[in-house]
Specification:
The complex is a heterodimer of chains A (about 500) and B (about 625). With about 500 residues, chain A is an all-alpha fold. In chain A, about 75% of the residues lie in helices and about 5% in strands. The longest helix of chain A is centred in the middle third of the chain and has 33 residues. Chain B folds into 2 domains: about 525 residues, no CATH class; about 80 residues, no CATH class. Classes of the chains: A mainly alpha (about 500), B mainly alpha (about 625).
């Protein structure tokens, strides 16, 4: 019951805001959106506390069920999504992007949140796909309509590319899911995970795994399927970028755990070496691009590619530790990316652009609060212990060094070494940004006084930075939640 | 008492310090009080808990991996913790004067507290992952401290360089930790040492049987002899980076751009010395692996001698102390590298203890003298300490200790290091002989530059130099550290460090070697700068650290940046090119379709439908079969 409410509340509020309530002035729309996000967050906590679930026949002719519930694997992501929902709706007080009605914008944010919550709670493979797809449309509107005003063509290109690229991925995913469902005769994710692909022959397992992995890899994104991400991130309004990085990419990795890894473990195992290498190369690749990228927002986007590389590497290792590491790194990246995008969005609002080649006053001197938040974000980005990313990425290296027994160990050790080198690159690009933006490597001639973060922006930054520290000091918050659920996944060794 | 307290107090102090950073008075009070409390706790623990104790365990299982996150204390660790806390307190108290007028004093004090917490974590950690946590946090704090005066471009560059050089070396450290933990299935130090103590010869057998390396790796996941050697070497590489040993040495002299109290902290008791603590913990494994000992032994032998020579020829006295740190940390690590299994690594830890005392004393005294003189160049600082008794006393004791004169703290520890190296040389399976030779030569060179430093700083000047205005904190700190440097050698009587008896022979030898060094420095008389007399031509090269900075740029930085540009180009033009190509092809197909569709002949449409049906059918058949 509660889980239905969890989905219904943001869906209803979002739908009303984009349709009948389009003309609602910001004065009313903002509190409404924030209140629904708050209500959703409370409901998310309630769902986890009560263990609420719903399971009804949906399309009996096709054997599809309307089935939602949360378990240990989805719990951290559910909380992350609800929290980020709060952050983005609160951020509307800082920035309301032009391009359409403010109410429509807020409605789109809530609809994306709804889709993500549904994705993380769906217990039916087809339902998962539907929820996965629902997110695309409001996100497309956010990028295409409310995105960066300066270049309409780039905006249209980024939005079109995002929607077509990820829709192509989803079509592959759809074929994979249909093949899986037809082969096993059930669409229930728990039954599928319990069966662990035993009903499928090795060839069929591989085919299903390939289709599922390909489809989900676009969303994660895994190198070389990542080129939709930087333009989408760069163009999207701040809240859109935050949702993209903190929620949408997580749907990809979550899908990898739920679908190929759990349902066709043997087929996934055969693809794992490729995935591991792609992940490790992604870490290095993203790090290298960040060393020379000029646009700060694009740079953060590429750093996402690098961080998701660690997640993919850990998943590919196929061990329990690996999946735990992946889920932890996933949540950690969500927080860190959200922090960085809020910051960069704020800088873009102040400076007009975030071109690193332009001389600007040192943030440390002009806006100490923004500076401190930036330092926390960058330190987390380079994997500093005590901040969120450290544990996930260290455990990812560990799981690659000691992968599941059926994985080719040589390949995985090589991938671990590559990823470790990539981690050093992360230090290089994080300090490059720190030097240019924070410490003042390229100072402006007249160091004007910038406006520091105040009000909502300040509290959003404090909350996100605080969460990054808390998760870094106490990784067990996530690990203890995922432990039992991961141990229960079939096909892990 | 839980060792966690030692970490928690300074960590909390840094947290509170960040909150009250705008109020200098509060920030200073929090930092100094927390420093005092930490010292008190460490001292009490050291005195009252004679045996070894395992600390509280925060068990964190992650799948098949066990992360006990355990701490442990034994007398040697607690002695080191005490000296760390002492130096940290001295630095905090001294900073209230030195950075009293700085507009970012609050941040500085909070960072120093965090730095202390991280070092204490490394000291009491009995868990490789915890060690890594402290290790990396120290690196980050060093970035913040060295770059404290970030309005100066040199400080920004030095901070960046320090962090990047050590982080690159840390690739080895991280992989070493991961590998050891993976082999043992636990990150607890005792578990790791236990699992890797008796390695198998699996890899060797597999390779001998003709299996390629990847397959052999797959077959051998148990602790293996060869893998152990590789992992130890990787760890040693990380240690060499943090400890500024060859080939990573060049970040340390540049780090002199940081405020002097930060230098005192980084050099004396924390970051650079941490490697000794880590390797001491792994000594049972290290002592059993000649390859790793040789790698370490060669690197530190080269480092200590090279750095001592470069220190002698520096035209900047603060940089002289920096190079002296490189050299002295080499001495610490040499004891770990050379000591045979029976001796244990405690001679190195003893030298850590004594170096912490005299090096912090020297840095803080020099910092005061530099403020009085208005710079750190040798020419400018000439005689700057001559008029202030506390500075003269501090510098005398500090330089005597540095030179290794018997009975003061530096002399006591150096004799033990020499004895350990001699034992290693006699035992014969490690780099003992090499290390022993390097140690003797280094001792002479050290005595020479210590003499030079003292002569220059206390030289007689006709115009009476000003002492500068100081708050009482500065002289109090210096007197305390001077006393500790004189009496600190008595620590060997407490039995905290497991040391062998040192015969009188070593005392005589040390006196002899030091005498040679001092005599060398005095060749040109008391009034001339010995570097000008003996090494005039070396000075410009020594000031640039032999141009290693350029080497780093040419060998690492530029190729990486070039690669990055290539990758960025490939990313937008090639990888994305396929995506754009797909879009283009789709559009072309659409155009073609619409053209064909508009054609008059209905056969075209029929053809299209039939073709499409055939295609679908083929896909269906292939997919189903």
């Amino acid at each position: 019951m509660v889980v239905s409410l969890l989905l219904a509340l943001p869906a209803a509020a979002g739908l009303w805001l984009v349709t009948a309530g389009r003309a609602t002035p910001p004065r009313l729309a903002r509190p409404l959106a924030a209140a629904s996000a708050l209500g959703t967050a409370v409901l998310a906590v309630l769902v986890l506390v009560t263990g609420s679930q719903v399971d009804r026949a949906w399309l009996p002719e096709l054997g599809l069920r309307w089935s939602f519930a949360a378990d240990g694997i989805s719990a951290p992501l559910l909380l992350l999504t609800a929290g980020i929902g709060l952050v983005v709706t609160a951020h509307a007080w800082v920035e309301l992007p032009p391009g359409g009605s403010p109410a429509g914008y807020l409605g789109c944010l809530l609809l994306v949140e709804t889709g993500a919550l549904a994705t993380f709670t769906a217990r039916d493979a087809v339902l998962f796909l539907v929820a996965f797809e629902v997110v695309l449309v409001p996100m497309w509107v956010l990028v295409g309509r409310y995105g960066d005003r300066r270049d309409p063509r780039a905006r249209a290109d980024a939005a079109g590319r995002f929607v077509l690229y990820t829709a192509a991925g989803s079509s592959t995913l759809l074929v994979g899911i249909l093949l899986l469902v037809v082969s096993t005769g059930t669409a229930d994710l728990r039954e599928l995970a319990d069966g662990a692909g035993a009903a499928l022959g090795p060839g069929r397992q591989l085919a299903v795994a390939l289709l599922l992995v390909l489809g989900l890899a676009v969303k994660v994104p895994v190198l070389p399927l990542h080129t939709w991400l930087p333009p989408a991130h760069t163009t999207a309004p701040t809240a859109g970028s935050v949702l993209l990085a903190a929620v949408l990419l997580k749907m990809g990795t979550y899908g990898l755990v739920r679908l190929p890894l759990a349902t066709v473990p043997d087929g996934f195992g055969r693809l794992a070496p490729v995935l591991a290498v792609a992940g490790a190369v992604g870490v290095v690749w993203g790090g290298l691009v960040c060393l020379v990228e000029r646009d700060l927002k694009r740079l953060v986007a590429y750093s996402s590619v690098a961080h998701m590389g660690f997640v993919v590497l850990a998943l590919a290792s196929g061990s329990e530790t690996g999946v735990q590491a992946a889920l932890l790194a996933n949540v950690a990246h969500g927080l860190v990316a959200a922090l960085l995008f809020v910051l960069v969005g704020g800088l873009k609002q102040r400076w007009g652009s975030v071109d690193l080649a332009v001389r600007r006053p040192a943030l440390r001197e002009t806006s100490p609060r923004l500076g401190l938040a930036l330092v926390v974000g960058l330190a987390a980005s380079l994997g500093l212990p005590g901040l969120a990313t450290f544990w996930g990425e260290l455990l990812a290296l560990y799981s690659a060094w000691a992968p599941a027994g059926d994985r080719p160990r040589g390949v995985f050790v090589a991938a671990a070494v590559l990823a470790a080198v990539g981690a050093a690159l992360a230090a290089a690009y994080a300090l490059r940004v720190a030097g240019l933006v924070w410490a003042g490597d390229r100072p402006a001639a007249d160091a004007g006084t910038g406006t520091d973060a105040v009000g909502v922006e300040r509290w959003v930054l404090v909350t996100l930075a605080g969460a990054v520290v808390v998760l870094g000091v106490a990784p067990m918050l996530v690990l203890s939640s995922t432990a039992d659920a991961v141990a229960g996944l079939g096909g892990l060794r | 008492m839980s060792p966690w307290l030692l970490v928690a107090v300074p960590a909390l102090a840094s947290l509170v310090g960040v909150v009250v950073r705008r109020e200098d008075r509060w920030a200073g009070a929090v930092a100094v009080l927390a420093g005092g409390l930490t010292l008190l706790l460490a001292g009490i623990a050291w005195v009252l808990e004679p045996g070894s104790t395992a600390g509280h365990v925060l068990d964190l299982p992650v799948g098949g991996l066990d992360l006990p996150l355990a701490t442990a204390t034994d007398p040697a660790r607690l002695a080191v913790a005490t000296v760390v806390a002492l130096v940290a307190l001295a630095v905090q108290a001294y900073s209230t004067w030195y950075l009293g007028a700085d507009d970012r004093y609050g941040q500085f004090a909070a960072t120093v507290s965090l730095f202390t917490a991280a070092m204490l974590l490394v000291v009491v950690s009995a868990d490789l992952v915890l060690t890594l946590v402290g290790w990396e946090v120290m690196g980050w704090c060093s970035y913040l401290l060295i770059g404290h005066w970030s309005r100066r471009p040199e400080a920004r560059r030095a901070a960046l360089k320090a962090f990047l050089v050590t982080r690159v070396a840390d690739i080895g450290f991280v992989l070493g930790v991961v590998g050891f933990v993976a082999g043992a299935g636990t990150s607890g130090l005792s578990g790791v040492v236990g699992a890797w103590r008796e390695p198998t010869g699996c890899l060797q057998e597999q390779l001998a049987a003709g299996a390629p390396l990847p397959e052999a790796l797959g077959a051998c996941d148990a602790p293996d002899g060869r893998a152990r050697t590789v992992l130890l070497v990787l760890l040693v590489v990380g240690v060499l980076g943090k400890s500024a040993q060859v080939p990573f040495q060049d970040w340390l002299p540049d780090a002199m751009e940081g405020p002097t109290p930060a230098s005192a902290l980084i050099h004396a008791a924390t970051m650079v010395a941490a490697g000794t603590v880590v390797l001491a913990g792994l000594h049972p494994l290290l002592a059993d692996s000649p390859t790793a000992r040789w790698v370490l032994g060669v690197a530190v032998s080269v480092s200590m001698l090279l750095a001592a020579v470069l220190a002698f020829a520096q035209s900047d006295l603060k940089r002289m102390l920096a190079w002296s740190t490189v050299s002295q940390v080499g001495v610490m690590l040499s004891a770990v590298a050379a000591a045979p299994p029976a001796d244990g690594p405690d001679a190195g830890l003893l030298h850590l203890w004594s170096h912490a005392l005299f090096k912090s004393l020297l840095f803080l005294a020099l910092g005061w003298a530099a403020v009085a003189a208005g710079g750190t160049a040798a020419v400018r600082m000439r005689g700057s300490a001559s008029a202030t008794p506390v500075l003269r006393a501090a510098l005398l004791v500090g330089f005597l200790s540095l030179a290794g004169v018997p009975l003061v703290v530096g002399g006591v520890s150096k004799e033990h290091v020499l004895a350990a190296a001699y034992d290693g040389a006699v035992a014969g399976d490690g780099p003992g002989v090499l290390v022993l030779v390097a140690l003797v030569l280094t001792s002479a060179a050290t005595a020479a530059y210590a003499t030079r430093g003292y002569l220059l700083l206390t030289a007689h000047r006709r115009d009476r130099p000003r002492a500068g205005t100081v708050t009482p904190a500065a002289p109090a700190v210096l007197w305390a550290l001077t006393g500790a440097s004189v009496l600190g050698g008595l620590v060997v009587l407490t039995g905290s460090f497991a040391l062998h008896q040192v015969s009188l022979l070593w005392l005589v030898l040390t006196v002899l070697v030091v005498g040679v060094g001092v005599a060398l420095a005095l060749v040109g008389g008391l009034d001339r700068d010995p570097a000008e007399v003996l090494a005039r031509r070396l000075v410009p090269y020594a000031d640039r650290g032999l141009g290693v900075d350029g080497l780093y740029r040419r060998v690492v930085a530029r190729p990486v940046l070039r690669l990055a540009r290539v990758v960025a180009y490939v990313d937008t033009e090639v990888v994305d090119g396929y995506v754009r190509g797909t879009a283009l092809a789709t559009r072309a197909a659409g155009w073609l379709g619409s053209r064909l569709h508009r054609g008059e002949r209905s056969s075209t449409a029929v053809g299209l439908v039939v073709g499409g049906a055939l295609l679908l059918g083929a896909v269906g058949v292939l997919g189903w079969s």
